[in-house]
């Protein structure tokens, strides 16, 4: 017979699962409601458990839980890789490969996405690859919808391979350890995850793209304006001494040179065999992203290569941002050139390019951008320290358009990668727990200026923090009141007489269904104590049952709301709800069947 507290917690669990599935209610609000209900309820109606009176404040322990600390620290460390641009070379390499071997490129994209997601939060990986894959689809005249969803699901498959691959993994492992299960090390279940993941990847590579409708991707909300700019060639850069054709090939054919300018009077046509030299200026029309990419790949610069140019200090001072500013009727720049108003010294900004609409588009800049007379409606692309860019919005002289962009600390890439590898290796070799190595890594990233505190805040995700804390509180309530044992008993009653391998398979399927309706973290934390209770009832090792919960709770494929990256690719790929069901349902069945066969083999469960 259930006591009142156990019954109340079970009812609250059902309410929580309902709230977590409601899109109209902010997830953080639902989480706070559950936390408040637990704390207030146990304060007003004290409960005497087997270990004494349950303290209401214990339900807030999730905010200081090792799993949440590790999740937050790893999110911030992942933000460090994004902020320094450490992942961009991967994206650029994939973009080059796509132009030559589309099918092999899709496979490479899926594998790289999966491997990276085993160690890094998959959100920045998906955010990085979405624009690349959309551009690839546009260049190859194919549908982006056939590749975005497989890529997103590949990151979910990869995240199942290690204890730090997803926040779900960290939660399951931590909760199980608290309940007396031997703590899982980083690669303890990588082998079954790799075998089953390979089967899932084959489906995503060969079958899933053919199941998805051919439709155009949604354009990026930010307007990619085309700017006219000069690429200045410094001495010793890649472009110095190279033929035009070699330089264009280095950019995978992306660079389109309009004119080669060697002086105000001398302009050369960009013939393939023309040899470029130091101090040449290449006139180009392209988007800010592409212009900055050319800088990185070719070693060219978007400002004068002159020791007397006083903008160098502003380009090397703190966090750098790009902004687009409109020349309006009251602008002091209207009818003036940047040189005449002493733009750099006066505003501490460096102009990199200019956008002019329609047939007025600039055909040449013989005297450089600094001597161009600016017209009404011109848009300047400028770069400077973030505090200078932010100050622009407070000045009546300028109207700053939407789309201000943080520029990566490219020089910090090796350092950020070294720190990330250190975080992983210290945990993998059991030198430090992942929560401690990740926190130490974040501190090193701050001290070495790979990130600042603004990046730390941006790296954290409030809904994730709240769902972890509230799920841990709910799991704690189920454990201390005996609710998890009751649910485990009901599950075993329904599976009466079934062999352990079938019970494990059924538990995993239940988690797979639950994770597509509510949060995967909630499903994991609620399912873990139930799995341990089932194992104890069967007098078997709890490890395979805990892993079944972990794998099942990660099968977030069937609905767009099942995982945050699903929502990202839904918007970018212009998918409908049923597109996720069409691909996600068979993928879930494939993964469930694969793990149902593999886990009994690896953990010697009787069939």
UniProtKB/TrEMBL annotation:
It is a multi-pass membrane protein. The chain crosses the membrane at residues 6-21, 28-47, 59-82, 103-134, 154-177, 189-208, 415-448, 460-479, 491-514, 521-539, 545-563, 583-605. Residues 216-300, 310-398 form the RCK C-terminal domain. SUPFAM superfamilies: TrkA C-terminal domain-like. It is found in: Membrane. Signal peptide: none annotated. InterPro entries: Cit_transptr-like_dom (IPR004680), DASS-Related_Transporters (IPR051679), RCK_C (IPR006037), RCK_C_sf (IPR036721). Keywords: Membrane, Repeat, Transmembrane, Transmembrane helix, Transport. This is SLC13 family permease.
């Amino acid at each position: 017979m259930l006591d009142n507290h156990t019954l109340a917690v079970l009812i609250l669990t059902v309410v929580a699962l309902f709230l977590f599935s409601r899109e109209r209610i902010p997830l953080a609000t639902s989480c706070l409601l559950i936390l408040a209900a637990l704390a207030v309820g146990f304060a007003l109606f004290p409960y005497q458990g087997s270990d004494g009176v349950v303290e209401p404040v214990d339900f807030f322990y999730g905010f200081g839980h090792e799993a949440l600390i590790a999740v937050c620290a790893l999110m911030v460390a992942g933000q460090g890789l994004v902020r320094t641009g450490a992942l961009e070379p991967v994206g650029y390499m994939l973009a080059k490969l796509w132009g030559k071997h589309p099918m092999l490129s899709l496979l490479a994209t899926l594998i790289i996405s999966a491997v990276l997601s085993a160690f890094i939060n998959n959100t920045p990986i998906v955010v990085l690859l979405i624009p690349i894959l959309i551009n690839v689809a546009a260049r190859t005249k194919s549908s982006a919808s056939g590749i975005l969803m497989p890529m997103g699901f590949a990151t979910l498959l990869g995240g199942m391979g290690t204890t730090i691959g997803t926040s779900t993994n960290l939660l399951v492992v931590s909760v199980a350890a608290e309940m007396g299960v031997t703590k899982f090390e980083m690669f303890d279940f990588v082998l079954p995850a790799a075998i089953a993941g390979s089967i899932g990847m084959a489906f995503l590579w060969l079958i899933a793209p053919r199941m998805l409708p051919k439709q155009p991707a949604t354009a990026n909300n930010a307007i990619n304006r085309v700017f006219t700019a000069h690429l200045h060639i410094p001495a010793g850069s890649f472009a110095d001494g190279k033929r035009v054709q070699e330089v264009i090939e280095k950019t995978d054919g992306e660079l389109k040179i309009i004119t080669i300018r060697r002086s105000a009077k001398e302009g050369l046509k960009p013939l393939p065999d023309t040899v470029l030299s130091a101090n040449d200026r290449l006139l180009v029309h392209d988007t800010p992203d592409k212009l900055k990419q050319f800088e990185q790949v070719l070693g060219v610069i978007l400002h004068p290569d002159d020791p007397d140019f006083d903008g160098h200090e502003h380009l090397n001072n703190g966090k750098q941002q790009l902004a687009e500013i409109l020349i309006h009727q009251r602008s002091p720049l209207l009818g003036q050139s940047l040189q005449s108003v002493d733009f750099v010294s006066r505003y501490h900004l460096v102009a990199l390019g200019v956008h002019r609409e329609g047939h007025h588009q600039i055909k040449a800049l013989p005297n450089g951008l600094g001597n161009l007379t600016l017209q009404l409606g011109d848009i300047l692309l400028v770069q400077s320290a973030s505090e200078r860019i932010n100050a622009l919005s407070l000045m009546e002289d300028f109207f700053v358009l939407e789309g201000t962009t943080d520029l990566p600390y490219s020089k910090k890439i090796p350092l950020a990668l070294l720190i990330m590898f250190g975080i992983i290796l210290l945990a993998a070799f059991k030198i430090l727990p992942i929560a401690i190595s990740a926190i130490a890594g974040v501190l090193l990233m701050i001290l070495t200026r790979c990130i600042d505190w603004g990046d730390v805040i941006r790296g954290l995700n409030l809904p994730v923090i709240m769902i972890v804390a509230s799920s841990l509180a709910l799991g704690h309530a189920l454990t201390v009141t005996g609710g998890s044992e009751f649910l485990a008993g009901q599950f075993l009653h329904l599976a009466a007489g079934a062999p352990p391998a079938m019970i494990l398979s059924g538990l995993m399927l239940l988690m797979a269904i639950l994770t597509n309706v509510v949060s995967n973290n909630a499903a994991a934390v609620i399912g873990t104590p139930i799995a341990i209770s089932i194992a104890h009832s069967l007098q078997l090792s709890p490890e395979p049952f805990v892993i079944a919960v972990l794998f099942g709770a990660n099968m977030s494929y069937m609905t767009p709301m099942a995982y945050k990256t699903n929502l990202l690719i839904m918007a970018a790929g212009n998918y409908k709800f049923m597109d996720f069901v069409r691909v996600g349902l068979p993928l879930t069945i494939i993964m469930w069947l694969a793990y149902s066969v593999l886990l009994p083999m690896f953990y010697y469960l009787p069939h």
